[in-house]
Design a protein that fits this description.
Oligomer: single chain
Number of strands: 6
Number of helices: 12
Strand content: 5-15%
Shape: extended
Distance between the termini: 20 Å
Helix content: 40-55%
Strand order of the largest sheet: 1-2
């Protein structure tokens, strides 16, 4: 592509749902037109504000505390600068040692992630159970990479490869000991924390408590209102939407509509008012039955 062709693409043809395209093109332009996959990944990460904010917090916690304690660095609040105060006479040798330590850690991490005990089918089942969302913050896989996390860390396993979870001895790689966390939540958890973030509480249909009691069980039920109800309804809508996308079943659409009606009521709008709005919008702009897909205007 010629220079003017790239300019036309950037100014007239490039549509963006994320920042990726201009960042990659800029990186290539600044480096002679060639970069590796890893180099481009680093460039994209530099523009990810959530990643940057996360590592700003990380760098000021364990690394700063430990390196300051051992008189390796000091921290200058003005300008937020880190200063190396240890001797650097053997700079090249010290860099080689750092490289070796990094390589050893990465190899160990790769070995853990390739562990046959957490194979692809098990990973699929765990992700499916979590609906491909972080079980702590709820962010979906489309927005942030997800990890399979051992609730009780592998470092806590005994010589038989077992850990204690909820008072029960289980294999460390058992699905019962696996949860889904995004990379941000997983790194914040660290490998010494055994918190189970799997969500078992959820909003249910109005007759479910009665049905559970009729089956002989004694459910713990809490009635929500106000902001807590609205938050639970919004989360329920996401859950029902994901179930529809997975099943493509009209019955799941019915669940979505039921939640939407409940949200409307919580916002002070009746079912009739909501359908009036739907009719007004359909009259003015039409529905979605024809399948028209807008791709832009003819140049």
């Amino acid at each position: 592509m010629k220079s003017n062709g790239l300019k036309t693409f950037l100014t007239d043809k490039m549509s963006m749902t994320e920042i990726y395209q201009p960042v990659i093109i800029k990186e290539l332009l600044q480096n002679g037109g060639t970069r590796t996959k890893d180099q481009l990944a680093v460039a994209l990460a530099d523009y990810d504000l959530s990643v940057k904010d996360y590592y700003r917090k990380i760098v000021m916690r364990w690394p700063k505390i430990t390196l300051t304690k051992h008189n390796v660095i000091n921290y200058q609040r003005e300008g937020e600068k880190w200063n190396l105060i240890a001797s650097i006479q053997d700079r090249d040798e010290l860099i080689n040692i750092c490289d070796r330590k990094i390589a050893e850690w990465l190899e160990k991490k790769r070995d853990q992630e390739k562990d046959p005990a957490v194979n692809e089918s098990k990973r699929y089942r765990v992700l499916k159970r979590a609906k491909s969302k972080c079980e702590l913050c709820g962010i979906p896989a489309q927005l942030r990479p997800l990890d399979i996390d051992h609730i009780i860390p592998q470092s806590k396993a005994d010589k038989f490869g077992k850990v204690v979870l909820n008072g029960k001895h289980i294999l460390v790689h058992s699905e019962e000991n696996l949860q889904v966390l995004c990379f941000k939540c997983n790194r914040a958890k660290r490998d010494q924390d055994g918190t189970d973030f799997r969500k078992r509480k959820k909003l249910v249909r109005d007759r479910i408590p009665e049905i559970i009691r009729d089956s002989g069980r004694d459910p713990i039920i809490k009635k929500l209102s106000g902001n807590r109800l609205m938050s639970a309804l919004n989360e329920k809508l996401i859950e029902e939407h994901e179930e529809y996308l997975e099943s493509k079943d009209v019955y799941e659409l019915a669940d979505m509509v039921e939640v939407i009606l409940a949200i409307a009521r919580a916002k002070g709008s009746s079912q009739e008012r909501l359908f009036d709005i739907i009719t007004q919008k359909r009259t003015s702009n039409g529905g979605f039955t024809e399948g028209y897909f807008y791709e832009g205007d003819v140049a």
